Amino acid sequence: MPNSAINSGHVDLILQATEIGHELKNIIHFPRNTGIDNDGTMPRETYQGIIKQLKARRNVDFSLYKENTILRRIERRMTSLKIHHSADYLAYLQDNKEEINYLFNDMLIGVTSFFRDPRAFDNLQRELANYIQNKSNKSLRFWCVACSTGEEPYTLAIILSEILGDKIDEYKIQIFATDIDQNSINFARLGVYPETALNFIPRTIKNKYFLLNSEQYELIKPIKSKVIFSVHDVNNDPPFLRLDLITCRNLMIYFTVELQRQILPMFHYALNPKGLLMLGQSESIGVFQEQYRPLSKTGKIYETLFVGKQLPPERKTSRGISLTTNNMKELKPILTSQHNRNKVDAELTNIIADTLREFVLPNAILLNENQDIIFTQGDNALLVRPTGLPSNNIFKNLHPQLSIDLRSAFHNIQNGQKVADTGYQSFKLNDENVWVKLILMTIEREGPLGRLTLIFSQIELPENIPLLTTDKQETSNQAIALEQQRLLAKTKEQLQNVIEELETSNEEMQSMNEELQSSNEELQSSNEELETTNEELQSTNEELQTAYAELRMAYEEREHQRIELDRLKVDLEHSNTLQHEAERSAQMGSWFWDLTTRKLEWSNGCYELFGLDKEVFHPSYEAFIGLASGEYRSRLEEQLTNLLHNRATQPFIFEALDVDRNISIMSLEAVVSFNDLKQATRVMGTIRDITHSVMKEKEQVVYKDTITYLLNNTLTASFVLDIDKLQIEYINAAFQKLLGYSEVVINALADEKLFTLFNTKDAIVFKGIVDKVSRSTVGECVPGKYAIKPKDSNVFMNVYANHTVYELNDTTGLPQKMLVTLFAAD
Description:
The protein is of the alpha+beta class.
């Protein structure tokens, strides 16, 4: 191990074991006075000198990397070399070329692994599968930026293999993996990794895509062949084009905001429409919200949005060095002497600009590099709001008659022309014929806005156009001829623009052809490796056939299990539907309480009983208690406690509040399960809304009490008859006085005995009246006249009688008892 470390060339000191402790103590107490100022930065001249040395020797510009990160790496190298001052270290760099390599390698923080952040790659696999399914062709191009030792691009190849399966050979796949470190690229090309690099990979992935080779794991050839490695500086070199996916994870955290705002537009230009961009967990798209749409916030996966024409982003130069103190001292007298004059000039300039903006060119539109509207001024009638998804692209929001001429003017602007216009065009605007011209100007800006385009709208009435103000026919013909000449010239100009765009596309195709040629060389070298491994593939073919047969059997078994699961799922859904309908018709719901996890679950019926939204309300013990009203809360809590101790009486009736604060009467019943220690483990129960039945029962009691009171206090003879039993259940005092029967005697006359009170003819009349009342409604009165035999008399007494419903059957809802009032007819 020590010899291997020494041979790697990355060891700073080679010491005996007895000397290591003393040297560590020296490093800990090494003075940190490295020439850093009190504000936490290195002197600017020294810092720029070190950056220039790295640029000159390794052709990598670190000027737009975060300075704190660069300073820490420089300080680390100074500590290793025991150099106290940064100026001395700059001199040491200039005299020792090897130290540039050590510093450069120290700048590179190659932290990577297979499936780093598995949840993010799960999201990527899902979004990538959707993208491939909607893709019109079978060509896939990925770019893995800052790939380090290659774990991430190989992870992309494995994910692709999992998505495409047996169809992977139908696709043309290219995964470009780039980094600025040649050593990392050389290591990644081998595709051989120690066992520790595969610790967090699922066993199924390891067995499927890796081969054990001399105590190390090597990726299988089909995966290695999908990845093309090359040295590439994303800050300086041109990007790969027509890409479907770019992964740039945990690289931009080392960049300044300025460099980040150069890289993201470059990625946007390199990606296909609706292409995918994957960033690290600590990175985001920042201000480029209109260029990217988030697909997965947790996975940091974005989809590119394209509006208008796609233009290559401009690269900004590195930040310059600020003026020195001596320069400022030389400029100060000049600035002081001209201060008052400049102030007056600025005020007069503002007066002129405000007047022009108000009276001459009141309508202005400001565009960014993507031709999106970022600011408008004035009430511009030429702007329209399109239907569908909102867009700020100028061509989506401008009057369609001006689109072609505007594109031509944009082409002139892009070719270096500072000011361009569309020429006057005549069309109808707001039911009025007008002549319209757009004037375009470019504005160069540093920082996040970049290059801007300013558009002024000039709208003129026909009478304000000099050539159209006369009524002469000859002048009108001349105007038509001039307009035709202008349109012809405009058409020629637009045709020339199309030709130039085609030439530009041809140049891009030529650069892509060179890229393909360089890839062809790598493919030729890979072809030789494929020829050498052909014999090994032939020898393992029989093993693969056997494994395929086993996999086929496993697949069929899995398919059978899937079908069975689908059937069980359908049955379960049917059962749930039946349960829901049953609960709804019975106005009840079921609930389950797991005392181990304190989790309370409700059926859909419980949510409907209380009028609660399943997506908003989450049942819990406390929330359940809170549904009871007033004093019933403590009683409900006591009931649940008694249930757990097996001393509760059931059912438990309580009042509850629904979502509208209405009071309902609920009946709760439950069954408790106990373990071997007689401890409650779970509770299953039902809740039923008995408000209607309780209220109906109360109404019946009140009704009966009222009728009883009336019967006992009236002078009219009355009795209550059970229609089904044909038995008189009740007589009042007036009935006893009129006919002489006691309640005991009259109750004994049940069924056919009841008709002994009537003669044969009147018995038939009374039966007809009973039948008619049994089919009547509450409140309907059936009058009648018949004769009744008094007690201890053979002379029948003629009476008039009224017959009404006294009580309904709870089950059938039909009349069950009848009230009869009698009046003597003689």
